[in-house]
Amino acid sequence: MSNITIAKPQVEIDDALKELVAQQTEECTIVHCRYFTDEPAGVRIWPSTFLVEDRGRRCKLIKNFNISIMPQWTYHIIENEFIRFTLVFEALGRECLFFHLLEDIPQPFGFYTKKVLKNSSGVYTVEVFCS
Q1: Furthest-apart CA atoms within the chain: distance in Å
Q2: Under a CB-based contact definition with an 8 Å cutoff, are residues 117 and 53 in contact?
Q3: pTM, 2 dp
Q4: Edge-to-edge order in the sheet of strand 74-76
Q5: Phi, psi dihedral angles at 124 (to 5 degrees)
Q6: Is 15 left (phi over 0), alpha (psi -120 to 50) or beta?
Q7: What percentage of the chain carries pLDDT values higher than 70?
Q8: N or C: which end of the chain has fewer CB within 10 A?
Q9: Residue 64: is its pLDDT beyond 70?
Q10: Which helix (H) or strand (E) holds 15?
């Protein structure tokens, strides 16, 4: 097998595109999750995972990183006794003061978090638990 080198071209990103990305980032909520476990585990997230605001409004899951969407599984090597993954949701409402993550599924072991206070950045790091 021959060695192949892939060149990384320099790309200039248009200012309008940068602004669009910045606007879209402001219109979502990013949740970095840590799931503590001492055993290798397969994890997945159901599309019925939401951020539930203090007033009951549910923010939909938009994108997942480092975790599969059901029915697929992601298998992790445990580092420092936890698994990390990131979830991107619709933006929290302006009136929201706090929220929690809820994986609303028809079986046991859905992910959830304790109450999380809303901040101005829209980026959070949380510990998730299984019900």
Answers
A1: 60
A2: no
A3: 0.79
A4: 68-69, 41-45, 74-76
A5: -135, 150
A6: alpha
A7: 80
A8: N
A9: yes
A10: helix 15-26
